[in-house]
Amino acid sequence: MAIEALVTLKSDEAASVGRDRIRLLETVARAGSISAGARAAGITYKAAWDALDAMSNLFGTPLLVTRAGGAAGGGATLTPTGIKVIEAFRRLEAEMARVLRNLEPDLAGTGVTPLNLVSGFLMKTSARNALRGTVDSIVSDALSAEVAVTISRDTTIHALVTQQSLRELGLCVGRDVLVLIKAPFVVISTGADRPLVSMSNRVAGTVRRCEISAVNAEVVLDIGDGKTLAATITAQSAKSLGIEIGKPAWALFDAAHVILAID
Asked: pLDDT tens across 8-66, in order?
């Protein structure tokens, strides 16, 4: 498997800088002006300026020298710092890719790839449920698409996304994705029989944990292959459902409440 490292640089005071902005910096330098660079990058002049300003703010020094239009026309050239930033960024990506490739033999046979490892270490999300899966099918119309993601041998989760999200995430059959679901969006139904509800996601499982407070309860279902799905429901609902550890239950949630993310 070809491994490619994508680096993002950020600080508390400035917007992040990743490969897209470094490419913009290179494009502007090649084109010789911000307007021409913006056109080549397929973005607006304002968006290009905003991105370039964000980079200058992050690094604390200008990366481009610009000159106003006139008889000779306007233009933009890289500063010595801008040249060094691009070179350092490319070297950093290459070094990270080399490190990840060296990890591959150690992970052989575990079912974990270097990319899984990095996202598992670094990803932070407020969603209680973050499950890795593979896109199994995509059904599209003019405005939206329903994406089926295989989570385990017995579990497929459906997500409803816009056509814009489909394009921007580069979603296609066979692509690995992360499925994010906030626990309050998940409804619990008990019993072995498949519930007759309109929700597009009905995931079978076994109650692994149930913690009940004065107001709320968190129910965690084992959905197979070592994966779990958590729901936050009211304490009264948990008691009325008669939830017991080891008993079969269902996690119910709408496809519109599922968020897809990529590494």
From this structure: 555 555 455 677 888 888 999 899 988 899 999 888 888 888 788 777 777 777 888 88
- To the question of pTM greater than 0.70 for the whole model, the response is no
CA dist., res. 82 & res. 56, Å (int): 9
Q: Which domain holds residue 62?
A: 9-103
Any domain includes 248:
yes
DSSP 88-127: HHHHHHHHHHHHHHHHHHHHTTTT--HHHHHHHHH---S-
Q: Do the domain assignments include residue 57?
A: yes
119 in any annotated domain: no
CB 125 within 8 A of CB 38: no
C-alpha dist (Å) from residue 56 to 33, 46, 61, 84, 257:
17, 15, 5, 13, 38
Q: Which of 65, 82, 103 is the last residue of a domain?
A: 103
